[in-house]
Design brief:
The chain has 403 residues and is α/β, with parallel strands linked by helices. The protein is built from eleven helices and 20 strands. The chain has an eight-stranded mixed β-sheet with strand order 4-5-3-6-7-8-9-10, with helices on both faces. A four-stranded antiparallel β-sheet has the order 11-12-13-14, with helices on one face. Helix 1 (6-27) crosses helix 2 and helix 7 packs parallel to helix 9 (204-214).
Amino acid sequence: MQKASPEVRLRYTLLQLRKIVNFAQQNIPFYQRLYGKTPIDFQSINDFEKLPHITKNDVRAYTKESTGAMRLNTGGSTDGPLNFYIDKNAWAREWAHMHFIWALRGYKHSDLMITMLGKPIGNQAFRYNPVHNEFLLNPYVDAGKHIEILLPFFKKYPFKYFQGYPSTIYNFLKEIEPFISSTEKELISQKIRSLFFSSEYPMPYMLDYIKDNWNITDYISWYGHSEMCILAYDEFSKGEYRPFVTYGYAEEAGGMLLGTSFHNYDMPLIRYSTEDLVVADKNEYGIVEKFRIERGRSGDFIEDINGRMFALTFFLGRHHRIYDYADFVQVYQPERGKIIYYITFKRSTPISKQSVSEYFDFPNIVMSFDYVFLKEPIRTQRGKLKLKLSEQDILSISTPVKD
């Protein structure tokens, strides 16, 4: 279907949309109230996109009257947790599409992978998962302190791919680099054919570090969300995501990315707002061929004192001199016009609280800055290293603070 003509993809999309809308209207009280009782018969994409869209708050109410094979939730870093149900085939469908993405980099199911996503494995540095033929690396431990275990692991096993959040892979490589020789670093670099970046688009400074220090240049990233309405991949590493026609329907409405699940009949999500702002390229039938994220769903922007909005990448993606010394930089905005940088230094540095502002470059920004030095970056409960922190993240800080 990804290679099919626009006409074929249109017919397939309309068929799936009609099926899920008709089912929802006939069987689910939430959609009966939303759409009314008159059967909906749309003939075009334009007709479908006249239906009302739904939000996270709508889904919270909808979940209370729903049931399904599996109940999932999102972390809700900005507006509280979100619970919902998925069908029994969801994970098989998910992995089928993920294997398609990885195959674009030569991956086969028999290939050994190392994965670092946040699955808890106790105090072990790594553990083998036979279900997916992968070694799970532990993101909750300091990799540098386990180098005597990790280095033989890297030498022994013939892995080819490294999957994880970009920030987590970056942090892992930063942690082990001081404890290995140039020969050992080269051995690891030569084994890694490609990086599989999950969930986040990698910050430029992270890519620069991985390329310049490890000589690893190939990667692929993808866009998805827990609600499983849209899955898209950035085949050419340009920040341009192509959605899977067979997964769900991705649409752009007023700059907002909306998604419709094709296969989750346990709890259909139809014209569901991801809260991501995008710029989309559409074909002659109005179907999104690819999109670029302009502003992320988790509020990935900073507001100055005058209410001007700046992308988070402006504050973290620029080539600030701080990256020559810091291992990790995170940002928190407690109020409009103010941000606090949480900077992780794992080794001694000449930078002090008084001089740190000199290592950032922000021309023409009406903003006040503060800085907190950490020994370890702030992680979520799942081990993810978020770039923009929430109030909940700050309140749960357990990582040591440097003087």
